[in-house]
Each structure stands twice: as C-alpha cells, then as structure tokens.
Write a structure and sequence with these properties.
The protein is α+β, with helices and mostly antiparallel strands and 351 residues long. It is built from twelve helices and eleven strands. It has one domain: Alpha-Beta Complex (Aminoglycoside 3'-phosphotransferase, Chain: A, domain 2), CATH 3.90.1200. Helix content is 50%, strand content 13%.
Length: 351
C-alpha cells in the first residue's frame, strides 16, 4: 500500500493523472484526525475546487491501544456517497443554514485513499464554537434537520442495507471502545450494557452515521458541513441520537449560569429532527426511538469519561463525576425520554 505524506502527495496525484505536474498543488496536513491521515490539497488553478485527501491508518491516535482495519475507509466512501445523494434529493432545509455533505472527487480503493470537496476556509468546527461560548440555535436546528433526513429517507431501505449492512467497523470503533469498555471498567454496568448492545442489534432500521458530533460539523454563516463517515452502517438511529446528544449534554452540564442556553440547543435539535421522522414513524414508534436514544445517551456520557476516547476538555474531577452520574442514572434507571434526562441533570447538579 502506498503511504501518503505531504511530500509524496503531489507526485502521487501526478501518477493518478489528477494533475500534470507536481507543482500544480499545495499540500498541507490537517490536524485533528484520529483514524485517518488527512491532507488539504489546494489547486493553483482557481477554477478547481480544493480537496481534502484522506487515507486510513490502522492504529487510531488515542492514548489507549485501539486498532481497526484500514478497510473502513471503503465504508466511509460508500456512506459518504449515500449521504450526499440523500441530502441532494431532499431539496434543502426549509430554514436555518444550508446542510451540506461533501462530494467525492477521487477514489483509490487499492490504497485506501479518497478525496472530497474541501470546506470553505472560513468554516469553523462547531465543537470549538460551543466550547468558546457561542450558542447558535440555527446550527442546532440544521443539525437536527440533517440527521432527520439521513434517517427518514433511508428508513427500511433494502438498497442502503445492501451497501452498508455489515457492522464490524461500528463494533470496532464504537460498541467495543465505548460500551464494552465502560462495562469492563464498571462491573455494575454489565447487565444494562448487554441489554443496550442487544437493542442496537435488534433495531436495524436505517442509515446510521456513527460519528455524528460537533467535532465533525463545520459551520459558517451560510451552512453546516457534515464530515467523517467511516462508522456508517445500517442500524439503530438511536445510536446517532445518543452519541450526538452526549456532546450537547456535556456542554450543558459544564455551562454554569448558561445552562438554559445550552439546554435549548438540545430542544431545538430534537424538534427539527422529529419533524423529519414523523414522516415515517407513528407517535408510538417515535417515542420508542426517543427512549432508546436516551439509553444510548446514558452509556455515551459514561464512555466520554471512562471509555477509550474520553473527552479531552473534561479535566475537572467534579465535572467528570457529574457527567458520569448523569449517564449512570439515565442508563441504569432506563430514562423514558430526553425530558427525564433533563430532570436527572438538574438533580445531579444540586447534589
């Protein structure tokens, strides 16, 4: 397998007949990639869109050993293409920012490499906005609409299931390092985690992004851009909801006097999401989905403290204990819905 570097990429692109001469591009490494080597390719020809070039790595860039097959980048290409097509066919969000899924421009499956449209240079990572105190309900609304479209428009789709039906990467990158890991750390979670794992297997209903979080959402004044599709599979949408809402709940828990501002993002997101799901689900089925989402949320909250990929900004021990307790109560007591999780949050913070 050819291993890309900043230095070798221009000649690689010549060999692949993307460009005629190596001096036609400027290549720089992008930071923050945990599971891929990520490069920005800027074309000197301003008529061409810049690319983000990705190549999978077999050892993830976290402190604990965490290995996963480079074949997952093939899954990322397939999931990205499906998501791009679903959003393109949706006609666009009725309000808020435009939701964007990048377009694939180049694939080299033999070397586990692909390129997609680079986001605009003024885009920001939504996670950093949230940590910096920027609370924008329009972004949350667009994120709810975007995830709702991906779920509802792939609901019960045999075509999507045939393309991304296998779940080995989801298991390697999510269920084991998050859910099984916290059961290994906390023996008291064995039973609820086994039940949650089985629930994820029993509800294979639509496309699941698997890494839907503020760190994978870029924002500017006009749009939100969704990234990182390698954990995509056909599964339970409750996982995406729990995984995403974990980040909003943690940021709400550490927001201090701005608790209500951050909590409102959760409500805005959910309202926009459920409007899309109401097109394919009955009220009872939507309520059941919300409860499964709450249980996934509970497990993910614990995992972001005690799993293999803890949240790097949650360094205060009291805050860690608060997040862990909210997750524990939500999971073990089987919270019925997101309103119950809100009550658990408030009760925990008063202790």
């Amino acid at each position: 397998m050819d291993i890309l570097s900043v230095e070798s990429t221009p000649e690689y692109l010549v060999d692949q007949q993307v460009i005629a001469h190596s001096d036609e591009v400027l290549v720089t490494q992008l930071t923050g990639g945990v599971s891929n080597y990520v490069l920005l390719v800027e074309f000197l020809d301003t008529q061409r869109q810049n690319w983000v070039l990705k190549q999978a790595r077999d050892r993830l860039a976290v402190e604990q050993e965490w290995l996963c097959s480079v074949e997952r980048v093939i899954r990322e290409m397939d999931t990205l293409q499906i998501c791009h097509d679903l959003i393109a066919a949706s006609g666009g969000a009725p309000d808020g920012r435009q939701a964007v899924v990048p377009e694939i421009h180049f694939e080299d499956r033999d070397n586990y490499i692909y390129a997609m449209t680079a986001a605009a240079k003024d885009c920001r990572v939504w996670k950093q906005d949230l940590l910096g105190g920027v609370v924008d309900s329009d972004v949350a609304r667009s994120c709810g609409w975007l995830l709702g479209v991906l779920h509802s428009q792939s609901w019960d789709s045999q075509e999507v299931q045939s393309q991304i039906g296998s779940t080995e990467f989801f298991d390697d990158l999510r269920l084991d390092p998050y859910y099984r890991q916290i059961a290994r750390v906390h023996a008291g979670l064995n039973s609820p985690i086994e039940k949650l794992l089985q629930s994820n297997w029993d509800h294979r209903l639509c496309l699941v992004h698997g890494d839907y979080s503020p760190k994978n959402i870029l924002v500017d004044k006009q749009s939100v851009v969704l990234l990182d599709f390698e954990v995509g599979h056909y599964g339970d949408p409750a996982f995406d909801l729990g995984f995403f809402l974990t980040h909003l709940h943690i940021k709400t828990l550490i927001a201090g006097t701005r608790f209500n501002e951050y909590a409102n993002l959760i409500d805005v997101f959910w309202d926009a999401y459920q409007q899309q799901l109401q097109t394919v689900l009955s009220e009872a089925d939507l309520q059941a989905l919300q409860q499964r989402a709450a249980l996934n949320l509970g497990a993910c909250l614990i995992a972001r403290v005690d799993g293999k990929s803890p949240v790097e900004y949650l360094t205060d021990l009291e805050q860690q204990a608060c997040v862990r307790q909210v997750g524990w109560t939500t999971l073990v007591e089987e919270a019925d819905d997101l309103q119950r999780v809100r009550e658990i949050m408030k009760a925990t913070m008063l202790r």
